[in-house]
Amino acid sequence: MGKLRKTISLSAGSVALGAAAMLALPGNAQAAASPCSAQAAACIDLSANQSWLMHDGVVTYGGVPITSGKPGYETPAGTFHVTYKDIDHWSNAYNAPMPYSVFFTQSGIAFHEGSLTAQSHGCIHLSPQAARIYFDSLQPGDVVEVVA
Predict the structure, then answer these.
(1) DSSP line for the chain
(2) When comparing pLDDT for 16 and 111, which is higher?
(3) What is the C-alpha to C-alpha distance for residues 71 and 119, in angstroms, rounded to an integer?
(4) I want to staple 80 with a disulfide (CB 3.0 to 4.6 A). Which of 9, 13, 85, 104 is the partner?
């Protein structure tokens, strides 16, 4: 019985240590608070070039760096809903790949893997790691808030 208790205790300690280490990783909930409401599943701050994933007003991932729409193709501010996802989308309009796309406007704007140095045609570019996490986390109907 004593051995079982030690094993359970050690396992619980390992879980707690793993959780503490995870919170310390870049791109996790230790980052600054987002400027969005509690309804947002994803938050984008265009002026700060940052984005977060959220649940009930609590940041669950981020802030992560983003790039957004260049002049003439600005990413619109407002409240939107995820419409659909496509892991291997190809943009016919711009003849370009859009891996891990999560679309949230009727005009085709999405989160997707892309350059963090070049602005987009309105989409939100994420790092490869962040794009995969956003793709796995967001579902159709989720609220996306874009703040200017």
Answers:
(1) -HHHHHHHHHHHHHHHHHHHHHHTSTTSTTSPPPSS-TT-SEEEETTTTEEEEEETTEEEEEEEE-B-BPTTSPPPPEEEE--EEEEEEEETTTTEEEEEEEE-STT--EEEE--SSS-BSS-EEE-HHHHHHHHHH--TT-EEEEE-
(2) 111
(3) 9
(4) 104
**Using omega within 30 degrees of 0 as the cis cutoff, is the peptide bond preceding 63 cis?**
yes
**Model confidence at 115: pLDDT above 60:** yes
Please name the residue that has the structure tokens 């996306």.
144
pTM score of the predicted model: 0.78
| pLDDT one-digit tens code per residue, 30-50 | 445 889 999 999 999 999 999
